[in-house]
Amino acid sequence: MPTIRVPTPLRTYTEGEKEVQVHGKNVGEVIENFIERYPELRPHLLNGDGELRAFVNLFLNEENVRDLGGLETVLQEDDRLMLVPSVAGG
Amino acid sequence: MYPNLSHSEILRYSRHLLIPEVGLEGQRKLKAASVLVIGTGGLGSPVAMYLAAAGVGRIGLVDYDVVDFSNLQRQVIHGTSALGTQKVESARQRVLDINPDITVDVYNEPFTSENAMRIAEDYDILVDGTDNFPTRYLVNDVSVLLGKANVYGSIFRFEGQVSVFDARRGPCYRCLFPEPPPPGLVPSCAEGGVLGVLPGTVGTLQATEALKLLLGIGEPLIGRLMLYNALDMSFEYVKLRKNPKCKVCGSEPEVTELIDYEAFCGVPGHDHEEGEVGGGWDITASELAERLHKDGKHIRLIDVREPHELQISRLEGASLIPLGQFAARMSELDSADEIVLFCKSGTRSARALELLASAGFRKMKNLKGGINAWAREVDPSLPIY
């Protein structure tokens, strides 16, 4: 199962979990299943059209999925997705 | 050509001169160089101090704030004796104590669309040590429009991000984050907290990148974002690519001059907590105390803070529904009740109030200024945090 790495600001919504394994053949399926498990995440990840929001980046290994196939990007069982949010603290 | 070093400067920078990658030539480059540090808080503290110690000839410091007691846990450029004084003045004194041979320019004003180009154009590179989204987009756009590198660092709780955005050679901040999050969705350090040493690590990395850029050595973080997690003690890297459709550095840019960044982000250009909703939805601590005294049993007090914050201060009779669970647990509330929402200072409870309003609730108030205002106005036995 692919793994999603959850950044600190979003762990409030994943019961503190920092890595979550989620079923899915592609990025879109994994994100949908991830949100199904933690519904409060939806506004943080997807817009009304079901697309990744502009202030959230999802990296597959080192590459931004926007530079790959977006939500259609096919995933392998041991792939690791990293969520990179906007944070502004300084 | 680059300025010469005096004998005392040669002794001061001796450990740099011994490194072949720096050497006398590199040290003279640093003496000729200038860096603008925007923000003299958690990130700006180590940035300014290390760049000064390293002999960067001219350092500009921008901040409009004064030193507050709650800054001292991480903003190590400021000492307890500087409480209440201008941050830029406090920082200037510390930096000139470290190295009196350099020049320090201070700008005791907010960095805004009106003054940013004028201030920034005189510096070789910009270092982003700001604490809010509007100023981060402003720093980015200034660096793109002026053709300068923007050494970026950002922090939250235990995590930091570092990169070098230089649109001449790679992506900019907007390529990675085309739009800011909507107001209230991402907590600031003032609401969510930050490990005090975190900006020390991240700011020191920014200072390292700035020095490498000035010296022209090594591999800068252009086109790479470094992600640091202090709890895991992990450093990870992801690749950043230039977005050809980027609104400021793309091939057909829409942003060709500075815009209204507060309007763009929908929030003010500072991370101070607002603490109120406005439009008649707020109740002051004194008003709440009076209402509770008169007909307390009809008021439902809801604390939307995190459970660990109850150990700092609590209000008698309040129920806890942390903001992160609020949407899911709204069914525990009755729209016929009079509900008063509160948090530390009124920002998170304002967001909870919006959630209630969108669910059709009408009889609710936000405790303006939060439990901290209650501690100030009603019950001084509670601490303020």
Write a structural description.
The complex is a heterodimer of chains A (90) and B (385). Chain A is 17% helix and 21% strand. With 90 residues, chain A is an alpha+beta fold. Chain A has a single domain (3-85), classed as Beta-grasp domain (Ubiquitin-like (UB roll), Roll), CATH 3.10.20. Chain A has a 5-stranded mixed β-sheet with strand order 2-1-5-3-4, with no helix packed on it. Chain A is globular, with a radius of gyration of 12 Å. The termini of chain A are far apart. The mean pLDDT of chain A is 93. Chain B has 2 domains: 33-265, Rossmann fold (3-Layer(aba) Sandwich), CATH 3.40.50; 282-377, Oxidized Rhodanese, domain 1 (3-Layer(aba) Sandwich). Helix content of chain B is 34%, strand content 17%. Chain B contains 15 helices and 13 strands. Chain B has helices at residues 7-12, 14-17, 23-32, 44-54, 87-98, 116-120, 133-146, 173-176, 189-192, 198-215, 261-265, 285-295, 323-329, 347-358, 370-377; strands at residues 34-38, 58-62, 103-107, 125-128, 149-156, 159-165, 224-229, 234-239, 282-283, 299-303, 319-320, 338-342, 364-367. In chain B, the strands form 2 sheets. Chain B has an 8-stranded mixed β-sheet, sandwiched between helices. In chain B, strands 9-13-12-10-11 form a 5-stranded parallel β-sheet. Chain B starts with 6 loop residues before the first helix and ends in an 8-residue tail after the last helix. The mean pLDDT of chain B is 95. The chains are: A alpha+beta (90), B alpha/beta (385). Chain A binds chain B through residues 7-9, 12-13, 18, 39-40, 43-44, 53-55, 57, 59, 62-64, 67, 82, 84-90, and chain B through 39, 41-44, 128-133, 136, 153-159, 161, 176-181, 185-189, 192, 194, 199, 225, 227, 229, 232, 236-241, 271, 306, 322-325, 327-328.
